[in-house]
Amino acid sequence: MSFFSIKKPAKFEGAKSKKEFAFRHYDKNKKVLGKTMGEHLRFAMCWWHSTCWPGSDPFGGDTFLRPWHHSSDEMGAARQKADVMFEAMELTGIDFFTFHDRDIAPEGATLKESNANVSAIASYIEKKMAKSKKQLLWGTANLFSNRRFMAGAATNPDPDVFAYTAAQIKHAMDVTKGLGGANYVMWGGREGYETLLNTNIGHELEAAKRLLALVVEYKHKIGFKGPILIEPKPQEPTKHQYDYDVATVYSLISSLGAQKDVKVNVEQNHAILAGHTFEHEIALAAAWGIFGSIDLNRGDYQSGWDTDQFIVDVPEITVAMLEILKAGGFTTGGMNFDAKIRRQSIAPDDLVYAHVGSMDACAKGLLNAAAIIEDGTLGGIVNDRYAGWVTAQNKAMLAGKESLGQIAARVEKQNINPQPKSGQQERLENLINRFC
Ligand code: XUL
Ligand code: CO
Hints:
Helix content is 46%, strand content 11%. The chain is of the alpha/beta class. A hairpin with a 2-residue loop joins strand 1 (31-32) and strand 2 (35-36). Helix 6 runs parallel beside helix 7 and helix 10 runs parallel beside helix 11 (314-326). The chain is globular and about 85 Å long. The relative contact order is 0.11. Bound molecules: D-xylulose (XUL) and cobalt (II) ion (CO).
């Protein structure tokens, strides 16, 4: 039985198409800068917002009334959610999916029971993957919903919660590997604190570092090929999260010297909550060699919380795509729609319209960014701005071949007297608009 009233997958119809359920820009097999659009964008659909969230908010409950939300047969409901996910991926042409362990299967009375539920549904998913050729972009563990995690998972003051966390992650990693997952994600959830009055920060940071070290060790033990991805977020649910932004997460990763094994999953809304732009977080991750994947959604620029809306603003996507292309594009990563339809969007088809529209906006952003790169004007202006650094003398200064005293003597001897040059910001903003 199908959940959606739309029966035929969205197709590329060209920019002038008037058909609503269609792509105007996303032409999956079209080559852009040497790769197909499908290879560039690697879209993923997330289990939790697409099938688990019932449309609740802090003031009201379920608006969606999906049949599986009210079923007494929990495992049957879990299979039904899987069916809907695969149907939605088919209709939208999305090739990847993502999940938390608790999204795909119900929690049992013990961890053993929960693990058995997850494994059983994973087998069900595996069969559907074989038939549909859909792939797992990443798996993760939900270490924040159950009340045992109210004071954190790895950073909980109770060592039993740390142990439980480690055990739950082990199983989620096994399942992710079993399904051929390309990455394994760790979002800190409640890894943070509410008040210093009851918190030992030093201990909690040591525990967070220990957990990451254990996960990296286990990744090698089981031969999991993809990277571990940490997803930064500054606050919400806790007031002070230990994985605030890319810069903070880099300090954790580099303190273990784990840059080869651990990268970041940058989420648009989390970047905004941290007071950054999405493109800043992508560019910083790339500069440090830890860019892995992205969670795609749109924050609200007025509300200070994680609204997780579908991203549709083409100029905004264009500048993010530009940084992704400059970073060399995705390898194991992709663009995961960590986005939910609004709670009034109760028609089943709203979910597939939302994905298709956002995919198309991303495709347009990709085309714009590729055109900006091919045009070369912007790249040329940036290169000119740093052109002074190509001389042998200045290269040597950057490489540490001159001491502070030697540099000072040279400035006097050569009578170096820097002349400021325009940063041309407005001209560059106008240049970007010519491509959007
Ligand atoms: C929460 C969030 C998570 C992670 C995975 O804000 O983004 O869904 O993406 O745990
Ligand atoms: Co996310």
